[in-house]
Amino acid sequence: MVGDKSQKSEVKGQKNSLFVISYSLLSFYLLMIGGWLIDTAYANDNQKIVLSLDQCIKKAVEVSPEIGESRYEEEVYKSKKLQADSADYPQIEVLAIAGPSPEAKREYISPSINTSVATTINGIFGSADVTLIQPIYTFGKISSFKQAASSGIRVAKAGVDKRTSDIILRTKELYYSILMAKDMRNLILEVKDDLVESIKKAEKQIEIGSPWADEINLFKLRTFLGEVDRNLNETEKGIALAKDALLTSMGFSRGTDFDIADTSLTPEKKIPEDVSVYMRNSIELRSEFVQLKEGLKARNALIDAEKSNYYPQLFVGLKASVAGATNRDKVDNPYIYDPLNHAYGAVFIGIKWSIDFGITEGRVKEARAEYHKLIEKKRFADEAIPFQVRRAYLDMKESEKNIVETEKAYKNARKWLIAAIANFDMGIGDAKEVADAAMAYIQMKANNIRSIYNHRMSFANLLYATGMDIQEIK
């Protein structure tokens, strides 16, 4: 009898150990999943819409205000290009005025000049002046501004592509996060099913008066089930928030009933090419490289534009003026000019030269400094972007191997758990073996889900780093 009591006490202690270990481990995973979901979810919006990843990306790109802003940046540079192109054409200025006119008679100056004529304002005058200036040679000012504006347009277009890449990557991250959350939820439900089954067995043992029955263990199981349900509810809330985040990025209104088309994470099916191919593509396709290349051209052109201010601007022009008054006689004498009653025109050639003592030099130095700032950015990009490509490539290769290994591990852990539970039910196994098997299964299954997510995201990051993601949606 003493031996039986000792044995029961030992078994009871082992079961308590199992419940404590399982409770702690699963609580950790549930809290980790719930917190992660809340961190990745943002914004709101809600009708029944089911969209695939490609459809989500297309919609998010269409409505993105960030892309819209970048497109208007392109319009800014197009406007500057229009201004630079128009500088080749003549600039025409017209001035027309009218007002009261003092009287002026021919006899006031002929046959002799009368110097004591009183001013009598009893009429009105009108005049119009036209000035036309056509640049001939500007020492590269106009052509430099044209080059800068053209490169600016290409920089802005690359900026649109950069924003588009950002939206694509963000959408993929949200989409895959929802899928991973659903898979984690299924893992929680799987554990919950095992827990419910264990509760039913424990209740039945107590009901039939089994010597192995223990109400304390039943209470612990029910407590554990309540914690599982609480975390399951939190996980459901996290999934809903993540869906709302994706909805918001696609511009749908609040209250839209939405879900994604896929139900579970699967590894990326596309076979990656050699890393050297991605390196080459990043140089050709990455929007930052395009921006830097064209930006350097623009900055260099602006240096030339500032240097042109050292030299005069040559131009030809035409000046014409006509005026008439109701109370003034017209005098045809080239030595006498009447500002209120005349008509003349002239063609001329001229130069405009602004001479300063350091202002132009300062502007040239400023333009050169801006150019060298971009040079340094390019040096950084030349090192950082290839590293980013290689890192994403190696991350994908690592996660690819991890998927295989963790799949083997969780399948074997599941078999181990089933065998351990069966041995324990028959009285030939101990609680510690069951706890170890349960711990290994939960850990390996969660790691497998995470590895699949990492495989998807590392490929998405690889496409982002090379600029190939833009090619996929065009």
Automatic annotation (TrEMBL):
Q: Where in the cell is it found?
A: Cell outer membrane
* Transmembrane domains' residue ranges: 20-38
Transmembrane helix keyword on record:
yes
- Name the source organism: hot springs metagenome
An annotated Gene Ontology molecular function: efflux transmembrane transporter activity
Identify the InterPro entries for this entry.
OMP_efflux, TolC-like
Q: Which Pfam families match?
A: OEP
Q: Specify where it is mainly localized.
A: membrane
Provide this UniProt record's keywords sorted from A to Z.
Cell outer membrane, Membrane, Transmembrane, Transmembrane beta strand, Transmembrane helix, Transport
Task: Kindly list the organism's lineage.
Answer: unclassified sequences, metagenomes, ecological metagenomes
Protein name in the entry: TolC family protein
Q: Which GO terms describe its cellular component?
A: cell outer membrane; efflux pump complex
